[in-house]
Amino acid sequence: MRDSTLNLIAISVFSFTMLSLLGPMLSLSPAVPAVAAAGLLGLATLDQLGLEGRMGNIVVDWAAWTSAEHRQRVLRHEAGHFLVASLLEIPVVGYTLNTWEAWKQGLPGQGGVVFDTAALEQTFAQGQIPATMVDRYCRVWMAGIAAEQITYGDAQGGFDDRQKFAQLWQQMDRPAAEAQLKQRWAVLQAKTLLQANQAAFEQLVEAMDQRQPVAVCQQIIQQHGTRAEAA
User: What does the alpha-carbon distance between residue 133 and residue 108 come to, in Å, rounded to a whole number?
Assistant: First the structure.
């Protein structure tokens, strides 16, 4: 998350340095780029220490959102999570598509589908997680990657999803070598679910693009008679 802010700082400092070098040719006072650079660094420090890098992420999201392909990737990634979670009966309580939307809703991170994880947390508290529950959540976490791969042949998102998967695997004290196999299995299973319910998926993408409420998105899924047994 914070790498985006650091990259912006590096680009801006380079720009201000070039501006200070070219300033005399442009009849620009050296104080102008110096003050601007100091202000930028102050904002960046506030962003890192007080806002967890969100200002940088908002700027990056805004720039990326001008790309139609990026918007579609995000929509399809999140719709993949939403659809597979619904098929596997994991409640969806909300979604956002970028850092700004997440911030406005008081949610952490850069946006995404928010699940009700009470059942998973309860099993953690009891000290034992059923294998069927592990499989369900693994498929949901890998569904965004699967959705991108179906359309584009690769996935640019999914870093946070893989982290959640890795955290679960670590908490279960399972061998790391098994994690890669389980991830590949989960991606393939999620692809099967998405491809078996392609019509519902496409309409869900359109609904989420319009920021339709969760209840409306769930109605779309139900109207298509979606099938979870495909996985």
Answer: 25
